[in-house]
Amino acid sequence: MRAIHPEGWQRGPGFTHAFATEGEDVVLISGVIGNDPATGALAGDSMMEQAARAFRNVVEVARAAGSDANRVAFLRVYVTDREAYMGSLKEIGRAFKDAFGGHYPAMTFLVVSGLFVPGALIEVDGVALLPGSGG
């Protein structure tokens, strides 16, 4: 496996941002929140602000591994407040399109009671394919 650490990002405290598998077919992307990865500061207090940044963070990790937004095959989205997510769905949808274009990976959505980082409202993890992997 090859550890992926996007340039300019802080090292994860106790985790790696992603791993490319042996033969580098698949990138396993750790959960990312809606923060500035260089400073750790949350993108804002709203679900919309954090969701937009979390989607961009997933794409940045995929790119750092040699993949891109169109090769993200699966996302798992954890939110702490279903109503806040649904109330911002139109804006979040635009932010998703800004990050992923017209590509829609397979997705799972989960509502959780809390996330590890205080104030984080959303976390996203996923799987991306690398060029030449047949995906």
Report on the structure:
It is a single chain. The chain has about 140 residues and is an alpha+beta fold. It has three helices and six strands; from the N terminus they run E-E-E-H-E-H-H-E-E. The chain has a single domain, classed as 60s Ribosomal Protein L30, Chain: A, CATH 3.30.1330. It has a six-stranded mixed beta sheet with strand order 1-2-3-6-4-5, with helices on one face. Strand 2 and strand 3 form a beta hairpin. The mean pLDDT is about 90.
The assigned CATH architecture is 2-Layer Sandwich
Q: What class, by secondary structure content?
A: alpha+beta
Question: Would you state the CATH class?
Answer: Alpha Beta
Runs in which pLDDT lies below 50 for 5 or more consecutive residues are none
**Number of alpha- plus pi-helical segments:** 3
Instruction: Work out the radius of gyration.
Output: 14 Å
